[in-house]
Amino acid sequence: MITLTVTTVPVSWSAIAPEIVLLSCACVLLTCAIFLPARLAHPVGAAVAAGAFAAAMVAPIAQWHDAPRTAFDDTLRIDAFGNGARLLIFAAGLLAVVVAWGMPHLFDRAVEYHALLLAAAAGMSLLAVSNSLVIAFIALELFSIALYVLVAIDVDALPGLEGALKYLIVGSVGAAFLLYGSALVYGATGQFEFDLIAQSIRHGDAHGGVLLLGVAMIIVGLGFKANSAPFHMWTPDAYEGAPTPVTAFMSAATKTVALVLAFRVLVAAFGEDSAIWQDAVGALAVASFAVGNLAALRQANVKRMLAYSTIGHTGFLFTAVAVHTQAAARAMFYYLAIYSLMNIGAFALVAIRERELGRPVLIDDFRGYAYRRPLLALSMVVFMLSLAGLPPMGGFIAKITIWSSAVDGGQTYLAIVGVAATLVGLGYYLKIPFALVDRDVPIPESPYRPAFAVTSATVLATAVAVMVLGIIPGPLLDLAQTASASLIGR
Amino acid sequence: MTYDIVFVAASALAIASALGVVLSVNPFYSALSLIMHLVSLATMYLLLQADFLAAAQVIVYAGAVMIMFLFVIAYLGNRADEPTRDIPLWQLGAAVVAGAAVVIEIVVAVASQAFGPGKTVTDQFGNPSLVANSFFSRYLLGFEATSILLLVAAVGAVVLGSKRPSPRVDQPDDFPAPRPQPELELQAAVMGAETAFPVHHMPRKDEDGG
Amino acid sequence: MLGDWAAVLVFAVIAMAIPLSLLFATFALDTRSKRRAGDKRIPFESGVSANEFHAHRFTISYYLTAMLFIVFDIEIVFLYPLALRMHALGMFGFAEMAVFIVLLAVAYVYVWRKGALEWR
What we know:
The structure holds 3 protein chains of 3 kinds. Chain A contains 20 helices and 2 strands. Chain A is an all-alpha fold. Chain A has one domain (14-487). In chain A, strands 1-2 form a two-stranded antiparallel ribbon. Helix content of chain B is 65%, strand content 0%. Chain C has 3 helices and no strands. Chain C has helices spanning 6-28, 60-84, 86-113. In chain C, α2 packs antiparallel against α3 (86-113). The radius of gyration of chain C is 25 Å and the shape is flat. The model of chain C has no long low-confidence stretch (mean pLDDT 80).
């Protein structure tokens, strides 16, 4: 009989308040809403999910200016860096609920859709503040499994199943790398918590070779989740096959959380040893620039093109990780916010066009669209110009801040490759604006269905936000400054 | 001494059975080798004093997970090995090169520095009570998050594994379970007796795998 | 320490020995003719031929049941160590276990309601 005294960990409710809100609502949906008749399930599910996302934002906003603190015996670190990521995730979730409103395929899976969306967001939220490789892995698996299912939630659609299968297999390989890397880091340092790993390395207790292997595998695992080349193979199929609201959520929230985790783990745990990972992350950034932008040039399907474009954007975000100064963290945060807005807006617009046509959307399907839906077409122009990085949109400021941080941080080559990638990017982003105003090509006649007011309003709102944040970037940059300062003192 | 013998035996078995998993043509043999592999790993956990982990490994992996693997292999039937049939040669070559690169990297990295004496632990290390203690202290959150993870996994299994309730409920399954067909069996028995050919070679039109 | 597990080793050896000895004995003691052709090749050569071995597909229900079995099996594995320390921990342990089991119950209610436990 073992008589050990157990010191239980103090429970910090405020640290995990958003997760509790999201998961309780998910459980309510799974246990109660499934008893509702099908025609009520979607409104109730959407209302509960939207309410949960809105309520989950309260705690991160209330804690915004608090000093960073750890919770649950050092396994969580509640700081503005994590809370900012949480806010981006919840905003993406809210928009995913709105974009899915009125989606016919979801009719008899509405409860599951919203519950899994909440669970995925809860996992991401936990990951954004995790300070331990253990919690990070469990949270990562939590949101990944929810997303694998969400991609295939329309089980009658073969592209969704194919995308989900590829995402599952490749994503599991990525998770396995992350897990193996975590185990090796634990073997080398004897710690799972980021700050304790850093401490162990500083004291010279760590086995250098094993640590190097562990860090390499963690970077590979993160590369899979951040859809960085050469670990991007799942991205086009999963993005194309998934229902468009899911694609919008994945592209914004998964990217945010993967980058936030990458930045946090590399800086907080291995910041002292940045020489061992800086060039590797830079190489991933260059590969992502090349693969994403070159492959996007040849796509005819809009969702596939946007999928390759997100791979290209990973290049910019990994540039910030490779630089890993405070300015880089600030630039990355601004970039993530703008990127989430413009990507969700663009995918929402694709969702509208998809419903009008009743089939996947090609670039040619936007020909002459400006003469039928001028406001939506104008929003699409805003998104494409912003994705391409042209002034006066938010995407322009985002790229400029990344480049300036790269030059200041001594990684000028990444800025140069980024400029080249942006020039290539013009080649495909501008296809859509030109198609929109094309008068000469006969417009394929499609049944004109009533516009989806809620989704259209979302598109317009995100377009306005992308433009306003580009013209007046100050407030958002200030928020990004607070977030970055909470992680890096420099 | 005993320790060394058990260690060498378990590692040899682990490597041999891992090769068996990869090299077997029949997926059932791969699955059986995998069981052997998991049991050898459990033995190594025992050597590291991780008793609870060893037991959980056998119960969860060698038990539950392997049952599902076997069901999936049986579900796929004779098409289970199809994807491995025609892999382009360059992919095989690239896989071998990449695998070799990883192995060399591991060897170089591990050999770069001598290992320290390692950590000494008490006799009770790895026993379920101590595992439980970590669930109450540092890994409380991980423990509860695991339960959420399992909840999501169950929901996901049901969403993907079950047909939607409407409107396709009246349609037959894509892969119908074989129903006993007395006429056919009788006919086969008669024919088998008359022709002395193994009757299980007779094709049946509803089971061509498609 | 390791000696405690010697019993398991003995158990495993005996458990392996029984089926292996049966397998071996079948071949060692078999009195059938060595020529294998036609119906001689099938396991039961008298009576009606076993003609039902086709490589047919299992239904999806097996997969679903096995998947749910894994999920609940892992939950049990997690509950076991907790049960050992229940008395030492009092209310804290009870609350932790209750949360765990409520989440398990949510999964159960959902699975039940969706009819995934019905055999189809």
